[in-house]
Specification:
The chain folds into two domains: 100 residues, no CATH class; 51 residues, no CATH class. The protein is mostly helical and 205 residues long. It is built from ten helices and no strands.
């Protein structure tokens, strides 16, 4: 509180001209903001730099001499400005270029978040339920294989062809394959097939 009071008290004791000639750029203050503040102090001190070319040159030298950025100071010292608005334009362009070159913070955070997701996906362990499904499929395949081995081979008849093959081919010479059979004819066909596979003969009814 005492430091703030002393600073404000000392400022009140200074004249407007003394404030103008002792004004310096504050810490963290942009060059354009410092120029606006210096212009206001010059007008309050009665330094009419907009009307007199001599006072304008003195005002610009006062601005450049009190800059904290040494590189900007060297650049502006090698130029001669006819108007203060020309210097304002250059400082505005400089700030816009620096803002364009600086990447937004949100975009950088989004990129980092996506990169973290990629790393997590690579290090994420595989789900075990997939292994269980594969193991279950393997067990089903093995059971089907065992069942196929337990099934008996088809018995062959006297003609050398299997019973299943004759059923699929329809006997090869049955002209009545597409005709509906009666009950007696169906019984007769059943006995005929039984004779081929070696069943004991039985007289049809």
């Amino acid at each position: 509180m005492s430091k703030l009071f002393k600073r404000e008290y000392c400022k009140s004791k200074l004249s407007e001209a003394e404030r103008y000639y002792t004004m310096t750029q504050r810490k963290g203050e942009k060059a354009l903001a410092f120029l606006y503040r210096l212009n206001l102090a010059a007008e309050r001190a009665g330094v009419y730099f907009r009307k007199s070319s001599k006072k304008r040159e003195q005002h610009l030298r006062q601005f450049v001499r009190n800059l904290s950025d040494e590189s900007l100071k060297e650049t502006l010292q090698s130029h001669r400005f006819k108007k203060v608005v020309d210097l304002e334009y250059i400082l505005k362009q400089r700030e816009e270029l620096r803002q364009e070159d600086r990447p937004p913070a949100r975009v950088q955070q989004t990129r980092d978040f996506r990169a973290d997701n990629v790393v997590r996906d690579r290090l994420k362990p595989k789900r075990r339920d997939r292994a269980f499904v594969d193991q279950g499929d393997a067990e089903l395949d093995s059971e089907e294989h065992e069942m196929s081995e337990d099934l008996p081979e088809p018995r062959t008849g006297t003609s050398g062809s299997s019973f299943a093959q004759e059923d699929l081919d329809g006997g090869g010479s049955n002209p009545r394959a597409d005709v509906l059979l009666t009950k007696d004819e169906l019984i007769h066909e059943v006995f005929r097939v039984m004779e081929r596979v070696g069943w004991p003969q039985r007289a049809p009814p």
